[in-house]
Design goal:
Elements lengths: L7 H19 L3 H12 L16 E7 L5 E7 L8 E5 L10 H9 L3 E5 L14 H18 L6 E6 L1 H15 L11 E5 L5 H8 L16 H4 L7 E6 L8 H9 L4 E6 L7 H4 L1 H12 L7 H8 L1
Parallel strand pairs: 3-4, 3-5, 5-6, 6-7, 7-8
Antiparallel strand pairs: 1-2, 2-4
Helix pairs in contact: 1-2, 1-6, 4-5
Length: 305
């Protein structure tokens, strides 16, 4: 197995090609599974190079998970006591120190934010994560989130990229276990720059003739799970995303139940929809989820000038 590629598109190509070759050559041993997880999550150790420290007001939390381990989290409470709050799931490669820009933007929108690092990322315990362990970590994060935000009407679930698939899995699980007639466990789901399944992304960015579905064990099958989500869903994607094309969010949107909304941000790429389309993003949040005290665009424009 060559050295892990840094570029995400190349990583998925290697995942598809190397997976097929290795499966044929060694019959799918434990080493192949380990390499597959390394290629999927591409964990970068240590702090992101642009990280300059925690903003004032951020509280660090350790949340217990399976086998006596803990995951590390940040809790950034909004100024308003009745503010909405998001449980934040990041994607592959960067830990929380690489997520601060989006976390800050959500906080600037008026949200409290609980953001977690999966096992194997940042200061969380554990080795290379797997699809199963990140789902377990998401559920542990949810339990703490529900304690911090007891009013379900103020709770939102957010996921970026691979974290979008994690968010969809959690939302589907919560809705499956909520009885008929019971209130929703969260007020809404936000899925940004995500995909239908990991197999679909690998096929789109590698070699279409490879039977990657036979060898990729980390499925992240969001397209089936989104049909089970009953809470309102906002899908956001950058129109210029060359890593995960915007058509994947369109497919998720088409499969999702109403109420739902799709926001495609012109000029935005995989990581900057919230910044490039800040006003559109904020307005879509307030319109779909009917949040109180919607910010006034004219007041924001006046403040800028």
């Amino acid at each position: 197995m060559p050295r892990l590629p840094i570029d995400g598109r190349r990583a998925l190509r290697w995942l598809a090609l190397a997976g097929v070759v290795a499966a044929v050559a060694i019959g799918g041993c434990a080493e192949l599974a380990q390499k597959e997880r390394e290629l999927v999550f591409r964990v970068v150790p240590g702090d992101a190079s642009w990280y300059a420290g925690l903003p004032d007001g951020v509280r660090e939390i350790d949340i217990p998970v399976a086998e006596g381990q803990h995951i590390h989290a940040w809790w950034w409470k909004a100024d308003r006591a009745d503010a909405p709050a998001v449980l934040y799931f990041h994607g592959s490669r960067w830990n929380l120190t690489g997520q601060l820009t989006r976390i800050r933007q959500l906080h600037d929108f008026g949200f409290s934010v609980l953001a977690i690092d999966y096992r194997g990322f940042g200061r969380s315990d554990g080795d290379v994560p797997s699809e199963q362990t990140v789902y377990e970590d998401a559920r542990a994060g949810w339990r703490r989130f529900a304690e911090l935000v007891p009013d379900a009407r103020h709770r939102f679930i957010y996921g970026h990229s691979l974290g979008g698939a994690v968010a969809v899995d959690l939302a589907a699980e919560l809705d499956r276990t909520t009885g008929a007639g019971e209130p929703e466990p969260a007020h809404g789901l936000i899925v940004e720059s995500s995909f239908t399944t990991l197999v679909d992304v690998a096929k789109a960015l590698s070699y279409s003739w490879l039977p990657v579905q036979w060898v990729i064990s980390q499925k992240f099958d969001a397209i089936d799970k989104i049909t089970q989500v009953r809470m309102p869903v906002l899908f956001v994607h950058g129109a210029a995303d060359r890593f995960v094309p915007a058509r994947f969010s369109q497919a998720l949107y088409d499969a999702a139940r109403s109420p739902k909304r799709l926001l495609v941000v012109e000029g935005a790429t995989h990581n900057n929809s919230m910044r490039v389309g800040s006003d559109e993003y904020r307005d879509a949040l307030w319109a779909l989820f009917k949040l109180p005290d919607a910010p006034d665009r004219r007041a924001r424009d006046t403040a800028r000038h």
